[in-house]
Amino acid sequence: MQRTVSSSPLAPSVKVKLINAGFHTAADLVDLLPLQLCQEAGISQEEANEVLQALRHDSRLCQERAAEGCITALELLHCEQSQGSLVTFSSELDAVLGGGVSVGKTTEICGTPGIGKTQLCIQLAVDVQIPVCFGGLGGKAVYIDTEGGFLVQRAAEMARAAAEHCALLAEDTEQRAALEDFTLEKILSNIFLIRCHDYVELLAETYLLPNLLQKCAEVKLVVIDSIAFPFRHDFEDFSQRTRLLNSLAQQLNQLANQQQTAVVLTNQMTTKVSNGQSKLVPALGESWGHAATEKLILHWEEDKSVGVAKAAYHVSRTRATPPLSGSGRGKSSKRSPALPPCLVFCRSSSRKADGWPLSTSLPGKWKPLSNTKLRVKDSGMPV
Amino acid sequence: MDWGRLKLNPKITNAVKKASVRSAKEILSLSGPDLQRLTHLSKGDVHLLHSAVAAEYRKARPVTALELSLGEWPSLEPGHRLSFACPVLDDFLRGGLPLNGITELAGESAAGKTQFGLQLCLSVQYPQDHGGLGTGAVYICTEDSFPIKRLRQLITQQSRLRPHVPPALIHSLRFSDNIYIEHTADLEALQTCVSQRVPLLLERGLVRLVVVDSVAALFRSEFQADEAIERARHLLAFSRNLHCLSHTYGAPVLCINQVSDLVDSPNPGRCDYGLVGSKVLPALGLAWANQVLVRLMLRRQERCLRVGGQTSTVRSLEVVFAPHLPRTSCLCGVWEEGVKGVPREGLREKPPCPI
């Protein structure tokens, strides 16, 4: 497989000159001296040196890749399965998501204000640190906050509850040893917070994320809460917004894939009026709807605040309600009221064929409720 | 754009200058292929350019949550909140009003929202040990005129409201001097106030609390029912200003909001924030709700409470949503000295009383 000049990472004007001079593939340039290339293509000496270096480096890479061979779908499946997922501590939500939030993919969480998107994100930032012997990923988290909703008081409550929960579950010496690294201080020290005040800062952070993740390889989760907020504030040029969002989506997908991290984005909802009927849809437009690999939409249900889920593609599926219950854990005798449940709406990537598990059952660990609800506890552990 | 600080190959900086791309914002807003086309640089060079400009544009490095909890970054996490001057209310709100972000207080008329606003204007003037911020407040009135008589009454009763604060301190504070009142009769005046006059006060350190009473009045009156998009645009511009001010100066913003009735049956296109069985919803819809960090709702109840010779209708203050609070509610009453929360145990049933 030969590298063509037009697809190589050279400056566009240089490419044009080379193609005009008749050089189309790397093979055409392989035995040329820089001075000869200068004369034939009409480029400067420096540019000629660069061209030859780039194409030689490239051809070496191509050969290496050809030697390795392509990866088969079976290998890809094994790779994905061995990766593990990020549990949310709600067995229902995990079941609907296929084991948890997928690592290596982007997940979008949409919902109206106050439904629990930020709570879920902070919970994930704590859950990603659960040691591997407990079934977690044992990684760190980067939290990009654009709204100011990350309050460290809440993160500390969740971290404390997670540590206590794991302490109760510890059975053997390995798990007990791992617990020493899973304390409140340690959990808080592994969440990196970046606050962005406008979309330019968010774009800047996205360019810096690959470096950050390479330097700190234990980062397994990147949360952007929320991605809608800076882009909805008075953006005059909608086409520019769409372009920026598309390029952001590409960069995040690439980041998730290459660095094998889970990327979680939060989106707002907006009202869409069609045929005199209004309904709530995720914000940022139609093209952004295709950006993330997996999408969760959270709704309130009017009368009993029971969560309902429906798949995006299969409207006829049974409704499922992942419950996230909340009650004061270890708190005072007053029973703190629960947050009304939410609906979960799931669309997954093509790797979930059609066996989309949309059954609803209650979470195993906590006491079963009469109808599945989604509540956020004081301790933050969705149940 | 200070090219000298970027540590890039001069070839890259020259190419960028030649393409008349001047600001960091422009560079970061252009994609890789677009920049390649404009500057005739290679892909690797453009990548270096993006990384260098992004690193320069970034305002602060990532901080860990542990550093925040230890109070090492007061601009991001101040560690304290603005107290309401009542221990029950402060306990309910886990400290008081957050210093960054917009807090909304919605309720029907005569629920007591303005009372909360006035009480906070006084409470912000106390020093930090007593739950305040040591500076003044700006109160923006959009509907009625400012209730100056009630403010004077509250000022004289401060020592009764706060028995634990030394009277000498209370007497030393010149409360009326530190409250700046703005009357804005239309939307344009409101925007001018928030974008020009309030930042001036904040910058000089004269105020740190901004109260808008009420945010719904002007937006509801100046737009027709079918001008929803126009209204949303103005709302977003307004809230953007408030957000900027709040985050730059660490100033809590309290927006008082009206409510609208629910006249039709449950509608899938309307978000009710989980307020099941409620006949009213906070006004201004989803566009405004997305900008608010903490939403509180004040409701009058049928019963009365008598404490020490005074009678007050009981109100319930409910948390609709907040990032750090569970959905609880608390009872409170409005007295001569101000708003005070009622601990649940202290409530005895009384028949409804006339106002």
UniProtKB/TrEMBL annotation, chain B:
Any one Gene Ontology BP term: telomere maintenance via recombination
RecA family profile domain mapped to chain residues: 78-259
One GO MF term attached to the UniProt entry: four-way junction DNA binding
Keyword Nucleotide-binding: yes
Keywords assigned: ATP-binding, Cytoplasm, DNA damage, DNA recombination, DNA repair, DNA-binding, Nucleotide-binding, Nucleus
Family affiliation: Belongs to the RecA family. RAD51 subfamily.
Name by which UniProt lists this protein: DNA repair protein
Higher taxonomy: Eukaryota, Metazoa, Chordata, Craniata, Vertebrata
